Amino acid sequence: MSSVLLIDDNSAARKAIGHALARAGHAVTTARDGQEGARLFRELGPELVVVDMLMPGKEGIATILDIRAVNPDARILAISGGGDGGFVADDILRIAELLGADGAIRKPFKTAELLAAVARCLGVGTGPKAA
């Protein structure tokens, strides 16, 4: 299928999402945070990046912007379960799409939802979404 870079600070989420993607035939590389993820993106050039929006250190938005600076045509799927300070997952995911994610889904999600979102991202036009 495709090479996928999964960036999520939650080890259980990384394991579960990575396993689901691998079972679907994708070659999966994982990163614990945005900094490691941006480095791996530069090194590996995966076909798709699945990135959590809320992580310590470099969050998802900064990671998306870094990836877009390296490759404006990168395909990116944003994932989030929410956050602190009044932010909710839907707002965070909407911002991610405005800043360049090709798709976004809210945690928790079912494997079928994840795989459908991955397929959409791999099938959509490249580059940032129009506002």
At a glance:
With 131 residues, the chain is an alpha/beta fold.
Describe this structure in words.
With 131 residues, the chain is of the alpha/beta class. It has a single domain, classed as Response regulator (Rossmann fold). The protein is 44% helix and 18% strand. It contains five helices and five strands. It has a five-stranded parallel β-sheet, with helices on both faces. Strand 3, helix 3 and strand 4 form a beta-alpha-beta unit. Helix 2 packs parallel to helix 3. The longest helix has 13 residues. It is globular, with a radius of gyration of 13 Å. The termini are far apart.
Q: How do the strands and helices of this protein lay out in sequence?
A:
Elements: E1 3-7, H1 11-23, E2 27-31, H2 34-44, E3 48-52, H3 60-70, E4 76-80, H4 89-98, E5 103-106, H5 111-123
Parallel strand pairs: 1-2, 1-3, 3-4, 4-5
Helix pairs in contact: 2-3
